[in-house]
Protein backbone atom coordinates (compact mmCIF):
# COMPACT_ATOMS: atom_id res chain seq x y z
CA UNK A 1 0.00 0.00 0.00
CA UNK A 2 2.79 2.40 0.96
CA UNK A 3 4.70 1.59 -2.25
CA UNK A 4 1.58 2.44 -4.30
CA UNK A 5 1.46 5.88 -2.74
CA UNK A 6 5.18 6.40 -3.39
CA UNK A 7 4.72 5.38 -7.04
CA UNK A 8 1.79 7.74 -7.38
CA UNK A 9 3.72 10.65 -5.88
CA UNK A 10 6.73 9.95 -8.12
CA UNK A 11 4.50 9.79 -11.19
CA UNK A 12 2.76 13.00 -10.18
CA UNK A 13 6.09 14.76 -9.71
CA UNK A 14 7.34 13.66 -13.13
CA UNK A 15 4.11 14.82 -14.77
CA UNK A 16 4.39 18.21 -13.09
CA UNK A 17 7.97 18.54 -14.36
CA UNK A 18 6.82 17.65 -17.89
CA UNK A 19 4.05 20.21 -17.62
CA UNK A 20 6.51 22.92 -16.58
CA UNK A 21 8.80 22.04 -19.49
CA UNK A 22 5.91 22.14 -21.97
CA UNK A 23 4.66 25.46 -20.59
CA UNK A 24 8.11 27.01 -21.00
CA UNK A 25 8.22 25.78 -24.60
CA UNK A 26 4.77 27.25 -25.23
CA UNK A 27 5.92 30.55 -23.75
CA UNK A 28 8.96 30.58 -26.07
CA UNK A 29 6.76 29.86 -29.09
CA UNK A 30 4.24 32.57 -28.21
CA UNK A 31 7.00 35.13 -27.74
CA UNK A 32 8.44 34.20 -31.15
CA UNK A 33 5.02 34.52 -32.74
CA UNK A 34 4.60 38.00 -31.31
CA UNK A 35 2.17 37.31 -28.53
CA UNK A 36 4.30 38.17 -25.50
CA UNK A 37 1.29 38.92 -23.28
CA UNK A 38 -0.26 35.47 -23.68
CA UNK A 39 -0.36 33.65 -20.38
CA UNK A 40 0.88 30.09 -20.23
CA UNK A 41 -1.84 27.57 -19.59
CA UNK A 42 -4.61 29.98 -20.54
CA UNK A 43 -6.77 29.33 -23.58
CA UNK A 44 -6.05 31.08 -26.85
CA UNK A 45 -7.67 34.49 -27.23
CA UNK A 46 -11.10 34.28 -28.79
CA UNK A 47 -13.64 36.69 -30.18
CA UNK A 48 -15.68 38.55 -27.58
CA UNK A 49 -18.58 36.50 -26.33
CA UNK A 50 -21.99 37.19 -27.80
CA UNK A 51 -24.65 38.36 -25.41
CA UNK A 52 -27.91 36.40 -25.15
CA UNK A 53 -30.16 38.89 -27.01
CA UNK A 54 -27.80 39.00 -29.99
CA UNK A 55 -27.67 35.21 -30.10
CA UNK A 56 -31.47 35.03 -30.02
CA UNK A 57 -31.69 37.40 -32.98
CA UNK A 58 -30.23 34.83 -35.38
CA UNK A 59 -33.07 32.85 -36.92
CA UNK A 60 -33.26 29.12 -36.47
CA UNK A 61 -32.72 27.06 -39.60
CA UNK A 62 -35.97 26.57 -41.46
CA UNK A 63 -37.47 23.11 -41.65
CA UNK A 64 -38.00 21.57 -45.05
CA UNK A 65 -41.66 21.30 -45.92
CA UNK A 66 -42.77 18.37 -48.00
CA UNK A 67 -45.87 18.49 -50.12
CA UNK A 68 -48.65 16.03 -49.45
CA UNK A 69 -47.74 14.17 -52.63
CA UNK A 70 -44.10 13.85 -51.55
CA UNK A 71 -45.13 12.59 -48.12
CA UNK A 72 -47.42 10.05 -49.77
CA UNK A 73 -44.56 8.83 -51.96
CA UNK A 74 -42.26 8.48 -48.95
CA UNK A 75 -44.96 6.65 -47.01
CA UNK A 76 -45.63 4.26 -49.89
CA UNK A 77 -41.91 3.57 -50.24
CA UNK A 78 -41.57 2.88 -46.51
CA UNK A 79 -44.57 0.53 -46.56
CA UNK A 80 -43.08 -1.29 -49.56
CA UNK A 81 -39.72 -1.65 -47.78
CA UNK A 82 -41.35 -3.10 -44.67
CA UNK A 83 -43.53 -5.43 -46.72
CA UNK A 84 -40.46 -6.67 -48.58
CA UNK A 85 -38.61 -7.20 -45.32
CA UNK A 86 -41.52 -9.02 -43.70
CA UNK A 87 -42.27 -11.02 -46.83
CA UNK A 88 -45.87 -9.86 -47.08
CA UNK A 89 -47.72 -8.42 -50.04
CA UNK A 90 -48.03 -4.68 -50.38
CA UNK A 91 -51.59 -3.52 -49.88
CA UNK A 92 -52.82 -0.48 -51.69
CA UNK A 93 -53.20 2.58 -49.54
CA UNK A 94 -56.57 4.22 -50.02
CA UNK A 95 -56.44 7.83 -51.05
CA UNK A 96 -57.81 10.15 -48.42
CA UNK A 97 -61.04 11.88 -49.35
CA UNK A 98 -60.62 15.60 -49.86
CA UNK A 99 -62.10 17.72 -47.12
CA UNK A 100 -65.47 19.19 -47.89
CA UNK A 101 -65.51 22.94 -48.16
CA UNK A 102 -68.46 25.24 -47.69
CA UNK A 103 -69.06 28.21 -49.93
CA UNK A 104 -69.16 31.77 -48.67
CA UNK A 105 -72.90 31.92 -49.38
CA UNK A 106 -73.46 28.74 -47.36
CA UNK A 107 -71.46 30.16 -44.45
CA UNK A 108 -73.47 33.39 -44.62
CA UNK A 109 -76.78 31.51 -44.54
CA UNK A 110 -75.66 29.45 -41.52
CA UNK A 111 -74.51 32.61 -39.73
CA UNK A 112 -77.84 34.32 -40.44
CA UNK A 113 -79.78 31.32 -39.14
CA UNK A 114 -77.64 31.23 -35.98
CA UNK A 115 -78.19 34.95 -35.39
CA UNK A 116 -81.93 34.39 -35.75
CA UNK A 117 -81.79 31.54 -33.19
CA UNK A 118 -79.92 33.72 -30.69
CA UNK A 119 -82.35 36.58 -31.22
CA UNK A 120 -85.26 34.21 -30.59
CA UNK A 121 -83.63 32.93 -27.36
CA UNK A 122 -82.94 36.47 -26.14
CA UNK A 123 -86.54 37.47 -26.89
CA UNK A 124 -87.84 34.57 -24.77
CA UNK A 125 -85.87 35.71 -21.71
Q: What is this structure's SSE topology?
A:
Blueprint: H1 2-32, H2 52-57, H3 68-86, H4 104-124
Account of the protein in words:
With 125 residues, the protein is an all-alpha fold. The protein has one domain. Helices cover 62% and strands 0% of the residues. The chain contains 4 helices and no strands. The radius of gyration is 37 Å and the shape is elongated. The termini are far apart.
SS-based structural class? mainly alpha
- What spatial form do the alpha-carbon principal axes imply? elongated
The amount of beta strand, in percent, is under 5%
Kindly state the percentage of residues in helix. Answer: 55-70%
Kindly summarize this structure in a few lines.
The protein has 125 residues and is mainly α. Helices cover 62% and strands 0% of the residues.
Keywords, separated by commas or semicolons:
125 residues, mainly alpha, elongated
